[in-house]
Design a protein that fits this description.
The complex is a heterodimer of chains A (about 280) and B (about 300). Chain A has a single domain (about 65-280), classed as MetI-like fold, CATH 1.10.3720.10. Chain A has eleven helices and no strands. The longest helix of chain A is centred in the first third of the chain and has 37 residues, at about 1-40. Chain A has about 280 residues and is mainly alpha-helical. In chain A, helix 2 (about 60-65) packs across helix 11, helix 3 packs parallel to helix 6 (about 140-165) and helix 8 packs across helix 11. Chain A is globular and about 70 Å long. Chain B is about 75% helix and about 0% strand. Chain B contains twelve helices and two strands. Chain B is flat and about 75 Å long. Classes of the chains: A mainly alpha (about 280), B mainly alpha (about 300). At the A-B interface, helix 1, helix 3, helix 4, helix 5 and helix 6 of A face helix 1, helix 4, helix 5, helix 6 and helix 7 of B.
């Protein structure tokens, strides 16, 4: 009887294992394919094989020696970091108010944030194009940072207010009764509890900024502010007449690495952030 | 005495309000300045003839731009394509996403592994994934093209190109759908499922009669989010076909009119029309499903 039960459960384990495997293959195939292309030599690029026959790092060497890619990477990193920082700081202030304070207009603010989360970004492209041209913001970092903050804010506000609601704020009072100053109570008690929420919100906002293509391609015109996703479509090979497939694949891999690192390091946080925002609304 | 306490209380209350408004002001101002103002401005631009190639011909022309867009076959083709992509991909994602959510929720082994892998499509840059699909479906370079369509170029034929765009969209966004559904799945009490099992309900009956009704709000939120998100599809179309062979989405068409055609009047008209369409879709969702919709006045709930 006992033997039968374990046999039964081991069969079930195998079935789950198979399902796991399907999901993993599903998730990784396009990534592995672009990785494979990035390691192929120009001669084997068109062989259509999933695994390269000849491995090379030439494509990576090429992109890192072209100004085009290096500048785009710098733009991507700088713009995404600045926009994330500002969005999370502003989001923190608003989320604190939403989670802890009672005030008229709270519902309205949450509603507006939700509207913006679902806003069709293309509707902003035409007017922003014209407004930024008039203000001299077109093709600058600021010109991209502004819309990124705007669309990052709803994400930050939702995740952070969900996290802030779960913090036992009475601990702050307790710490003060025990003789801690206001600053100490915040630094020693509240900040450590709030930190996971801030990390989660930062990752989600960063991924959004890193991912954006529509604003990046519409509001820039030169290498001054063009981010990597936008720059990819302007890539040429080592010389102008070479097929850019290898370079594009290598550049694509470079901007995929931070995402893979985030996912590996912060899987729990990201899942918690996305699901918390969804249920608590 | 009592009056004084009340006044002190309301003084407190007022201070709390002031603090709250002060804290929310920066976020609210940025959001309004970068979305509210441009939308109003684009309505104004949409009422003008304004072609950047002929700026001296700029003039107020009322609703003429709307008339020319709404009688234009490219607009309606793009509109149809966008609707098709939205409906098909969201429907398939709902089914796949539910399966994925159940695996993430129930897997006996490797739950962490599945949750981690699923975040790869969610996190990866859409343009990167789109290039991967493009090369995979290009004859010669691509393993998928060689496997399934050895003698044709699937990205140059309208039907197969649309199918590939939908495939890329589904691959990228099913995990997001699954995560939203997972949040709902976690709310289904195990006791309820056990009780139903004791009463002799099959697994399917338990799913349809117990799990789905409890999850309904989460399902609706996921559907609303994904529908509106799918409607603005741009990246995949841009990289996979560039909108060739009538595969443009409305976002793609608007972009082309603005940056290739440099026609701000027409571009703004399309912007306004896309905005209105999205507003109508959201309104219909919220009207149909009422209280299940997020946001609104119940924003303060736990």
């Amino acid at each position: 009887m006992a033997g039968l039960a374990t046999e039964h459960s081991s069969a079930r384990k195998w079935r789950w294992g198979l399902l796991d495997a399907i999901v993993v293959v599903y998730a990784f195939i396009p990534v592995l394919w672009i990785a494979s292309l990035s390691f192929k030599t120009p001669e084997t690029l068109t062989d259509g094989r999933f695994v390269p026959r000849v491995w090379t790092l030439e494509n990576y060497r090429t992109i890192f020696t072209t100004d085009q890619f290096v500048r785009a990477l710098g733009n991507s990193i700088g713009i995404a970091l600045i926009a994330t920082f500002i969005a999370v700081v502003l989001g923190m202030l608003a989320a604190y108010a939403i989670a802890r304070l009672d005030f008229p207009g709270k519902g309205l603010l949450v509603g507006v944030a939700l509207l913006i989360a679902m806003f069709p970004q293309v509707s902003l492209v035409s007017p922003l194009f014209e407004i930024e041209r008039n203000l001299g913001l077109f093709d600058t970092w600021t010109g991209l940072i502004l819309p990124y903050i705007t669309f990052g804010l709803p994400l930050a506000i939702y995740t952070l207010s969900a996290f802030f609601r779960q913090i036992p704020w009475d601990l702050e009072k307790a710490a003060k009764i025990d003789g801690a100053t206001q600053a100490q109570a915040f630094r020693r008690v509240i900040a450590p509890l709030a930190a996971p929420g801030v990390v989660t919100a930062s990752i989600l906002v960063f991924i959004f900024c890193w991912n954006d293509f529509l604003f990046a391609i519409s509001l820039t015109s030169t290498e001054r502010a063009r981010t990597v996703p936008a720059a990819l479509s302007f890539f040429t090979g080592a010389s102008q007449f070479e097929d850019p497939t290898g370079s594009i694949s290598a550049a694509a891999m470079v901007i995929t690495i931070p995402i893979i690192l985030f996912v590996l390091l912060f899987q729990r946080r990201i899942v918690a952030g996305l699901t918390a925002g969804a249920v608590k609304g | 005495m009592a009056r004084q306490t009340r006044r002190a209380l309301s003084e407190n209350k007022r201070a709390e309000r002031r603090l709250a408004w002060l804290l929310c002001a920066p976020a609210a101002l940025v959001m309004l300045a970068v979305t509210g103002w441009p939308i109003i401005y684009s309505v104004w631009l949409s009422l003008q003839r304004y072609d950047l190639k002929f700026p001296e011909q700029r003039e107020f022309i009322g609703l003429d731009n709307y008339a020319s867009v709404l009688t234009n076959q490219y607009w309606w083709s793009a509109f149809g394509v966008t609707m098709l992509i939205t409906v098909v991909s969201v429907a398939i994602e709902l089914v796949l996403g539910m399966g994925l959510a159940i695996i993430m929720h129930r897997a006996l082994v490797g739950r962490g592994l599945v949750r981690t892998s699923v975040l790869i499509p969610y996190g990866i840059v859409t343009v990167v994934a789109a290039f991967s699909w493009r090369y995979a479906w290009t004859p010669g370079t691509g393993y998928l093209a060689n496997l399934f369509t050895p003698d044709s170029a699937p990205l140059t034929d309208r039907t197969s190109a649309l199918a590939i765009i939908i495939l890329a969209e589904i691959w990228k966004t099913t995990p997001f759908m699954a995560l939203l559904l997972l949040a709902g799945l976690a709310l289904v009490p195990d006791d309820l499922l056990k009780a139903a099992a004791v009463d002799g309900a099959t697994a399917w009956q338990r799913f349809i009669r117990v799990t789905v009704p409890v999850m309904k709000p989460a399902i609706l939120v996921a559907l609303l989010f994904r529908t509106l998100d799918a409607f603005r599809i741009f990246d995949n179309v841009f990289v996979l076909t560039g909108g060739a062979n009538e595969t443009s989405s409305v976002s793609m068409l608007t972009y082309n009119n603005l940056l290739k055609g440099l026609n701000l009047g027409i571009g703004s008209t399309m912007s306004v029309l896309v905005f209105l369409t999205v507003a109508i879709i959201a309104f219909v969702f919220i009207k149909l499903f009422g209280t299940a919709a997020p946001g609104g006045s119940n924003g303060g709930r736990r």
